[in-house]
Design a protein that fits this description.
The protein is mainly alpha-helical. Helix content is about 55%, strand content about 0%. The chain has twelve helices and two strands; from the N terminus they run H-H-H-E-E-H-H-H-H-H-H-H-H-H. It has a two-stranded antiparallel sheet with strand order 1-2. The two termini are about 30 Å apart.
Length: about 220
């Protein structure tokens, strides 16, 4: 299936009815498609590869659904988001566990299955609005809101993948986006800083995936209207 068709299918499958998620409109369809593509690919790929929890590596925690990282959530939040899943209480045990420590936890959850429909609901109703709000706080509401929708969505994708921290040398580009690019609503500046983030993964086994995602986010930002 051509990539563009797969992405359209993914977006259609993921987006809940707008009436149920009024805040979802702040994230552009193109940005939603980008996040879905880099998190799970499509519904078919999800069914084959991601129905059970995984550990993606690096600083991630146990991850399930559409990029839902339990290691960066609280037990309470996991319980609320996944209350419709019978295994919710078992998934709550992943809260706060990140890095290699997540590997044995994944093994204990091999029998858990998260249907794509439920994963889509949580993605649309809980994850996207939460990460949009997190990106808006991190980059500053005034500068963030002044960007075109696709550029805002690209920054939501960055935060969805990397978190919203602005502290430390690994976050130099995040701070530059906030302090240099956004005051002038400069989408080319934002795109350049997103691309520069690739320095963090060059020469590692994460380079292809994370640098590819950054390139897609930068491209979406540059094309934003």
């Amino acid at each position: 299936m051509p990539v563009v068709v797969a992405l359209q299918e993914a977006v259609q499958q993921v987006l809940p009815p707008a009436a149920n998620v009024p805040r979802l409109s702040v994230i552009s369809p193109a940005a939603v498609a980008l996040i879905v593509r880099w998190e799970v690919g499509s519904q078919a790929l999800y069914t084959r590869r991601y129905e059970a929890p995984i550990w993606p590596g690096g600083a991630s925690g146990v991850t399930w659904g559409i990029g839902y990282d339990g290691g960066h959530q609280t037990r309470q939040q996991i319980g609320l988001d996944w209350s419709a899943l019978a295994a919710a209480s078992r998934l709550q045990a992943t809260a706060g566990i990140t890095g290699p420590a997540a590997q044995p936890v994944v093994r204990d959850l091999r029998d858990v299955r998260v249907p794509f429909g439920l994963a889509s609901d949580v993605f649309g109703v809980a994850s996207l609005p939460r990460y949009h709000a997190s990106a808006r706080r991190a980059f500053g509401a005034d500068g963030f809101d002044a960007l075109p929708a696709d550029a805002r969505g690209a920054l939501v994708s960055v935060v969805y993948n990397r978190g919203a921290s602005m502290t430390g040398p690994a976050r130099t580009e995040m701070r530059a986006i906030r302090d240099v690019c956004l005051p002038g609503a400069d989408v080319h500046c934002v795109a350049g800083q997103i691309r520069q983030m690739c320095r963090l993964w060059r020469g590692t086994n994460l380079e292809a995936g994370l640098c590819g995602r950054r390139e897609d986010e930068a491209g979406l930002t540059e094309r934003a209207r």
